[in-house]
Amino acid sequence: MVLKHPFVTEKATMMLENESKLQFLVKNDASKQDIKRDLEKSFGKEVTQVRTMMTMKGRKKAIVSFADEKAAEEILSRLGIM
């Protein structure tokens, strides 16, 4: 499993509301394909795009878009965050 946990900040919440995208902290050696595979397997939602970046603290963050507009909100509610 390459996913660590959802990355929830004020900016991430605005991205969720405006663009239906989620942010996750992932293992530093995870590829975009690994992240996509894990998300689709864990939550059963089709992932359309994965963007990755390194944070200032040296952790890898993935920004994920889904095919279904409501998928991001549904996933966070399943995890008990929203």
UniProtKB/TrEMBL annotation:
Q: Specify whether Zinc is a keyword of the entry.
A: no
Q: Name one Pfam family in it.
A: Ribosomal_L23
Q: Which GO terms describe its biological process?
A: translation
Q: Name one GO cellular component term.
A: ribosome
Q: Which domain of life is it from?
A: Archaea
Keywords for this entry?
Ribonucleoprotein, Ribosomal protein, RNA-binding, rRNA-binding
UniProt-listed SUPFAM superfamilies = Ribosomal proteins S24e, L23 and L15e
* Molecular function per GO: rRNA binding; structural constituent of ribosome
Task: Say if the entry is tagged with keyword DNA-binding.
Answer: no
Q: Which Gene3D superfamilies match?
A: 3.30.70.330
> HAMAP family in the record, alphabetically?
Ribosomal_uL23_A
Quaternary data: Part of the 50S ribosomal subunit. Contacts protein L29.
Of which family is this protein a member? Belongs to the universal ribosomal protein uL23 family.
Task performed by this protein: Binds to 23S rRNA. One of the proteins that surrounds the polypeptide exit tunnel on the outside of the ribosome.
The name on file for this protein is Large ribosomal subunit protein uL23
Taxonomic source organism: Methanoculleus taiwanensis
Gene from which the chain derives: rpl23
